[in-house]
Specification:
The protein has 458 residues and is of the alpha/beta class. The chain folds into two domains: 302 residues, TIM Barrel (Alpha-Beta Barrel); 109 residues, no CATH class. It has 20 helices and twelve strands. The strands form three sheets. Strands 4-3-2-9-8-7-6-5 form an eight-stranded parallel beta sheet, with helices on both faces. It has a two-stranded antiparallel sheet with strand order 1-10. It has a two-stranded antiparallel sheet with strand order 11-12. The longest helix has 20 residues. The chain is globular, with a radius of gyration of 21 Å. The N and C termini lie far apart (57 Å). The N terminus is likely disordered. Bound molecules: zinc ion (ZN). Zinc ion binds next to helix 17.
Length: 458
């Protein structure tokens, strides 16, 4: 036996994971899965407009309906077209749908196949995220330290010169052109600027680079194409008053209409948890309101229900997905243990919509047995209950995404505005928690610790 084979590695996204069963949800290796999912389907050419010649992507970006982006996961992604179809059938009047793929962690063929099976009229926004922040000359070293390996492995990085190419003379407009070309080739309908890490150690220099890259990107965008300024930053840019003011001033001065902003969160307190740092949340609130007041469409990728909350503050859209990495862009840590026995079964978790929180499946079952409880009757839950032992991870993920779409639609069409509607939903969740807690204790990871904080900020 060699030195590696008796060791199991788990990447976890929360501070107090109790056992490996908790961590096993996110132990996948990002590099191994996509080529398996490739099929021989012919890849079609994409159109930026629908059959009537209308610019449906432009209309989707500019209209006043929230944008829900489903971020493709590395596991169980084959159910996502059904999830998107379901959301389009039920909510096309209330929200705009989009799909996002992680470009350097997939093969071009996998990306095209995925986009190919999503109906373009229902899902007008397609983003191939270049994830340039993970380059080794950006945030890559830090990511590598957290994972103990490269963010993008050789099975997919070989396709992406823009990601691997060394740039000793720095980032150039020509390189930015290559970043945009790669997204075009995959069929993206909204192009992103590279989105390099904005280092708070040298704020003025980092912001100047962000702006320069946006200018160069805009110069490379063709007539009829759409661009979002892509920015990746540590959450200190939100929590720290001085940094936040500099950032907001820069965004307003830039005159770009769409921003795609991803903030690195600290290690979360619970698996599939929420951000519960009030200073960061307050930063999101101010950022969202500033964008709304200045007619900037703000998209917050990988934020889960925190992104939904930000819709109430003025954000335009957010992304989430099946896996914890799609729901939160947060620090992670690596656990290594000796593989002495059989691998523990993963903890089964489900999204409780009335609680706005992920809980363990037995807890959800207990909540569903309380008097006046309404068990979820969505088609994914019904399919899961038909399936025997009562749990299926792709269906559980589909249920979560369906309920997030419902929550988004619910605040989109509210008569008194998104803020009031979100406050009502969060207040109801607080009441539901207090009532349920008397019969079904919601402790540890099952405790929706974010609710009081959210309520205070609405
Ligand atoms: Zn359901």
């Amino acid at each position: 036996m060699d030195g590696f084979s008796d060791e199991l590695e788990f990447l976890v996204d929360s501070t107090n994971v109790d056992n490996v069963g908790d961590a096993s949800e996110i132990d996948y290796d990002l590099d191994e899965l996509d080529d398996i999912e490739d099929d021989d389907r012919d890849v079609v050419e994409y159109e930026f407009s629908n059959s009537n010649g209308q610019d449906i992507t432009g209309a989707a970006l500019s209209r006043d309906k929230p944008l829900l982006l489903v971020h493709r996961s590395h596991q169980h992604a084959s159910i996502l077209p059904q999830v998107l179809n379901d959301a389009a059938d039920r909510h096309s009047d209330e929200l705009t749908l989009g799909a996002v793929v992680s470009m350097p962690r997939m093969s071009p063929k996998s990306i095209k196949s995925f986009f190919n099976i999503i109906p373009s009229d229902d899902v007008p926004i397609r983003i191939a995220d270049p994830e340039c922040f993970a380059r080794m000359d950006s945030f890559g070293e830090e990511l590598k330290k957290q994972r103990d390996k490269e963010f993008v492995g050789p099975s997919t990085s070989k396709y992406w010169t823009y990601f691997t190419e060394e740039l000793p003379a720095g980032f150039t407009q020509e390189w930015i052109g290559a970043v945009l070309d790669a997204q075009r080739d995959c069929g993206a309908t909204v192009l992103l600027s590279p989105g390099l890490w904005v280092d708070p150690a040298s704020p003025a220099k980092s912001l100047a680079a962000m702006r320069q890259h946006a200018v160069w990107s805009r110069e490379r965008v063709l007539s009829g194409e759409h661009l979002a300024v892509n920015v990746t930053l540590p959450s200190s840019w939100l929590a720290n008053d001085v940094l936040r003011e500099q950032l907001l001033n820069e965004i307003v001065d830039m005159s770009d209409p769409v921003f795609y902003m991803r903030f690195r969160w600290p290690l979360l307190a619970q698996p599939y948890g929420h951000l519960i740092d009030s200073s960061i949340l307050e930063g999101y609130m101010e950022l969202s309101a500033t964008c709304r007041d200045n007619d900037i469409k703000l998209i917050l990728p990988n934020t889960g229900l925190t992104g939904w909350l930000a819709l109430a503050w003025g954000a335009h859209g957010f992304s989430t997905g099946m896996g914890s990495g799609e729901r939160a862009f947060a620090d992670i840590r690596l656990i290594k243990i000796k593989a002495t026995g059989p691998r523990p079964a993963p903890t089964q978790r489900m999204f409780s919509s009335p609680l706005l929180h992920i809980v363990e499946k037995p807890i959800l079952d207990s909540l569903d047995r309380l008097p006046n409880a309404q068990r979820c009757s969505c088609k994914f839950c019904i399919a899961m209950r038909r399936g025997g032992d009562g749990f299926d991870k792709p269906l559980a993920g589909a249920h979560y995404l369906r309920r997030v779409a419902d929550l988004t639609a619910q605040i989109s069409s509210a008569e008194r505005g998104r803020g009031v509607a979100a406050r009502e939903i969060v207040t109801n969740a607080c009441v539901y928690k207090d009532e349920s807690n008397k019969r079904v204790p919601l402790a540890n990871h099952n405790n929706p610790r974010h609710l009081p904080l959210w309520r205070a900020l609405l």
